[in-house]
Amino acid sequence: MSEQPKTGPLVRHLGGFRWEGIAVQAYKAEGEPFRDVTRQLLFPAGAGGAGELRYFEVGPGGWTTLERHAHVHQVVVLRGQGRALVGDRILDLARFDLLCVPARTWHQLRAAPDEVLGFLCLVDRERDRPERPGAADLEALRATPELGEFIRI
Amino acid sequence: MSEQPKTGPLVRHLGGFRWEGIAVQAYKAEGEPFRDVTRQLLFPAGAGGAGELRYFEVGPGGWTTLERHAHVHQVVVLRGQGRALVGDRILDLARFDLLCVPARTWHQLRAAPDEVLGFLCLVDRERDRPERPGAADLEALRATPELGEFIRI
Fold it and tell me: Do B100 and A52 touch (CB under 8 A)?
């Protein structure tokens, strides 16, 4: 099940938010709507833990996919600054802030224009696939100008 | 189910590894064998996530309880330096290192003599109670001098 080589109990941080033996992966497939996001699988689903712990990094000005799903995201910011849309709110994010994205809630994270945003994201081992907004969803989001300005698709 | 007040999706880091609305708790009951350890429940079991995410802080020279259990610990070091006993190994810990304590494996974390050790620890929502070493367990650990010197009980 493990997507990373088993190297013993300790995986060293190499500096710069890179870890020994852990690949820096694409966040999603090419063509999906996101900008400048990478993904590292720190504790994969097969490692015997409660869930899967990933580290995502969004480059300056980058953004994750606007989506929602039944599973919850639990986020710990480790690096930089940014903002998050969660439901109908836009929230500033700084280092070590904790963010919980509830079930079935539209969300998108954006790095500050001149700073990387790096964060841990904890999810259940078993989880549903994200849903992207349709035309009616986008219309509803854009009815609030602040949200309409924030979102990237 | 939640052990912390529900304040919305964002919990701000206040600086110094303290978070708004999250209590700094005792690590374990008085009288249990540990030294200078606190516990903060960042994402409690009732928050809808895969597990429970806690932040532990061990003061300079402090140590967690030597114990083992069926559930797995997944640790991300956030602050300072220390060492961990995991099974028959002693491992140096530095910031952002990842540590996985397998099931049924003796473990103990110690802060460096002059530094705080702060770490995230992810566990399953439902988990068994820790077991402390008996006389035969301690004898087995102490058969390796390096382990015997490390452990505190």
Answer: no
